[in-house]
Amino acid sequence: MRKQFVLFTFFLLGIVAMHADSMAEYRAFADTVRADVYSMDLPAFKVRDIPEKYRNESAVYKAIYENFDAKKKTGVGVRPGPMMLPTISRRARIEAGHLTRMLIHINDKAALEKYSEFDFGIDNKKNYFEGYEKNRHVMGARLIKTDNRIVDIDTSDFVEVEEGKKGENKRRKLAIPGLEVGDDIDVFFYTETRMQNVHPDPLTFYLKESAPILNYRIHCVIDDNLTAQYRILNVSSTKIN
Length: 241
Fold this sequence. Notes:
18% of the residues lie in helices and 41% in strands. It has helices at 2-38, 109-114, and strands spanning 59-80, 86-106, 117-121, 124-127, 132-144, 150-152, 159-163, 169-175, 184-196, 216-222. Mean pLDDT is 81; it is low at 15-19.
């Protein structure tokens, strides 16, 4: 009985240590991304006043900036072939980053409730026969108070939740403490993707939000060794009675 107890204790300690390492890795990655994002020279994110015609809006997007970059690297590797003999295979690797940054003005209690909590993706990896796809997700947030003070939010205080019938959809949820009516919240979401022998999923930019947008900018840098195809769609909502 004592032997089982000792083994169980070591197992629990192992889980705690793994979680601590994971959080330390997230903090280091998030700190690096946060420093890069908030050092970007984007004049639209320095706007403090909003036009008179939007003064009665619940919330106003002062600026939205999306950045997507993708690089391709091609090499060779070894994999098991017929009769388990090693064979040479081609490996096409893609490294991509997708950033969405928003500066949102909170104008009433309805907007305060809506933007007091955000959710973002959890790190994941998918394995395929000759390839894989790995994603790392980071969120950053800071408040610009009415007296122009900047308050950084610790985004490592998220809570992981499971959604769906079998909990297959896992997300991270983060509450934004200290947010008040009249504040601006400067929030971003960043996804780092690494793929091998996998085609990237289509990337969609929706040029519409539930509140007025003063400035919207999209910047894409695609490797010359990648083929980019794009479509511009005008989608209108239809009311069905």
